[in-house]
Specification:
The chain is about 10% helix and about 35% strand. The strands form 8 sheets. It has a 4-stranded antiparallel sheet, with no helix packed on it. A 4-stranded antiparallel sheet has the order 2-3-4-5, with no helix packed on it. The chain has a 4-stranded antiparallel sheet with strand order 6-7-8-9, with no helix packed on it. It is elongated, with a radius of gyration of 52 Å.
Length: about 525
């Protein structure tokens, strides 16, 4: 019994410890989208051609045209509300660039107009261009404006204070397809792609060109492969001194070390990427995919697309607010405003507090016999001794009166004063084999070890009733085997105690007989 209870308690304790061992393991929930499209801005007239954001003023400028009329409209970047009335333009502003003090440069085909956003005034023909304006990029700190001329196949750097070029145009073999500026090192980067017949076959050249902002001169080139419809959009990470170039037909982005002017890798984005933008604050690259009507969000560190942001059809231009980490995509005749949300850290599952599982206290099983005070053996005084039980055939002494609630059978016969009388059952536990009302020393239905047998202690036959030296084989024994280690110990102790008590009784009887 003790062993079974102890085993159950151990199992429960181990189970409770395992249950309280910590949070349940399992795959962490997948993070949600990091970017959210908050609104789509539709110009009041025609289709959007280009967009430029002023982070300091919180303004977005959108040029649009319906073929006959041409507008410049300003919006609040926080609410998307239109600010003031649209400004009419003499020609479509196909490209724009923001300079110092909120001055906006507008490419009007054969000239460059200037719009003062603070005064809301437009100055046409501010910088004349011989050819056609196809690309614009500004370096406000240096006071430079880079102009890509499609007809002249060149890039010219202008001083924004005077409008005059700082040097002769940097002439390219083909018209520039992409233009960006490193505003830290004041260098412009222009791409081009073109084919030429070599040995009877057409060979395409994709090249990135570096242009010095101080002199306007071409200072270096990087070969980007020979894919048709290759090098298009370009953007720069000025902190990491890295350039990114989109390849339209290949669906890839080249990674360029701008210090050594060499290609260091490539990123597959798919969907015919054209325009690119880079957010240095979050180290995120954006690629407008004209063939997939979306923007690919790229982690340059791993070279993987981490998210795809849907836009309108054929996205063609990107504008980035690095302060608010907000992207503006010109697509489908409108502008999609997409904000980067602060990523929510994945929390570890919190274990539900549970009450500690109490460890069951094992119920005491069979233990060593508890000594009980038996009848006091009369002390010899020379007079007739008190009647005592005698061996079979002799006079029988008085029989002790059984208790009303027999719980522990008492061995037959009186015991010496102070000598413990062993019992065969735990103290206070009724023995189902002893019939209530049976005097101690008389067996019940089955003989029990340690409770006295049917024979008297003086029997010459040495029966087990003298002290129960051997275990009973009957099924009703009070010390049934449980297979645990506590049982043999208890049984051995009970047997030894019974033998010792029997020996003392025989010795006293012999002494009393001699004195008689």
């Amino acid at each position: 019994m003790r062993t079974a209870l102890l085993t159950a308690a151990a199992v429960l304790a181990l189970t409770g410890a395992a249950a309280a061992g910590g949070p349940a393991s399992g795959p962490a929930p997948a993070p949600g989208p990091v970017h959210e499209t908050v609104r789509t801005i539709v110009p009041p007239l025609g289709a959007a051609l280009d967009a430029e954001v002023d982070p300091a003023a919180g303004r977005l400028h959108v040029s649009s045209s319906d073929g006959a009329s041409h507008l410049l409209t300003t919006y609040d970047t926080a609410t998307g509300a239109r600010i003031g009335d649209p400004v009419g333009l003499p020609s479509p502003a196909t490209v724009m660039a923001l300079g110092a003090d909120g001055v906006l440069y507008l490419g009007l085909s054969t000239r460059i107009a200037v719009y003062d956003t603070a005064r809301r005034t437009l100055t046409d023909d501010r910088i004349p261009v011989e050819g056609s304006v196809s690309l614009l990029a500004a370096d406000p700190e240096q006071g430079r404006l880079y102009v890509g001329n499609q007809a002249a196949r060149s890039v010219t750097v202008h001083d924004t204070a005077t409008g005059a070029p700082v040097g002769p145009p940097a002439v390219l073999p083909f018209h520039p397809a992409g233009l960006a500026v490193d505003t830290v090192r004041h260098t412009g980067y222009a791409t081009y792609v073109g084919g030429a017949v070599e040995n009877g076959a057409v060979v395409y050249r994709n090249v990135l060109n570096a242009v010095d902002g101080a002199t306007g001169r071409l200072t270096g080139t990087v070969s980007l492969g020979s894919t048709a419809l290759g090098s298009m959009g370009v953007t720069v990470d000025p902190v990491g001194r890295t350039g990114y170039v989109a390849h339209l037909a290949a669906g890839t982005v080249s990674v360029v070390d701008l210090t050594d002017l060499r290609v260091t890798g490539g990123i597959t984005v798919g969907g015919n990427p054209k325009a690119l933008a880079y957010d240095p604050g979050t180290s995120t690259l954006y690629a407008a995919r004209t063939g997939a009507s979306s923007v690919a969000v790229v982690d340059p560190a791993t070279g993987t697309v981490t998210e795809t942001v849907p836009t309108g059809e054929r996205p063609s231009a990107l504008a980035l607010d690095p302060r608010e980490h907000t992207l503006y995509t010109v697509a489908g005749g409108a502008v999609t405003q997409t904000v980067r949300k602060a990523p929510t850290p994945t929390e570890e599952p919190t274990p539900t507090p549970t009450e500690p599982t109490p460890t069951p206290t094992p119920t005491e099983g069979p233990t060593d016999p508890t000594p009980t005070e038996g009848p006091t053996d009369p002390t010899p005084t020379g007079g007739p001794p008190d009647p005592t039980p005698t061996p079979t055939g002799g006079p029988t002494g008085p029989t002790p009166t059984p208790t009303d609630q027999p719980t522990t059978p008492t061995p037959t016969g009186p015991t010496p004063t102070g000598e413990p009388t062993p019992t065969g059952q735990p103290t206070g536990t009724p023995d189902p084999t002893v019939t209530p009302g049976t005097p101690p020393g008389t067996t019940g239905p089955d003989d029990l070890p340690g409770t006295g047998g049917s024979g008297d202690s003086g029997d010459s036959g040495g029966s087990t009733g003298s002290g129960g030296s051997g275990p009973s084989t009957s099924s009703g024994g009070g010390l049934a085997a449980t297979g645990g280690p506590a049982l043999p110990v208890a049984l051995t102790a009970a047997t030894l105690a019974a033998l010792g008590a029997g020996a003392l009784v025989l010795a006293r009887r012999a002494r009393t007989a001699r004195n008689s």
